[in-house]
Amino acid sequence: QVQLVESGGGSVQAGGSLRLYCTASGNIHDSSCMAWFRQAPGKEREGVAAIDSDGSTMYADSVKGRFTISKDNAKNTLYLQMSSLKPEDTAMYYCAADGPKLRVWLGFPQVAEYNYWGQGTQVTVSS
CB under 8 Å to 82, separation ≥6 — which residues? Predict the structure, then answer.
């Protein structure tokens, strides 16, 4: 059984930065493709950033140039460095694992394609 635990969320002013962490435990492989999703109140969960087993990444257009996804296999930890935060970045952020290989022509993987999820960490950006 795989467990994902997110941390690092909080409240910041617009223009600020936060770093999110997702620690994985259980039978998770280095080849597991992982991602960050977010969900704002009243909205559907949307993909933010994904990283493949070979280190290739994919980002939502809304966060390109501001967010960076990375992972440390030795520590079983996924990161999301968020900079130049905007009020519209306010949401619950979720870590997901065991997703599909990233294919640019297919776009960002869907929620249903990830088998494991964390409980989320809240990010609130004030103007």
Answer: 17, 18, 19, 20, 63, 66, 67, 89, 123
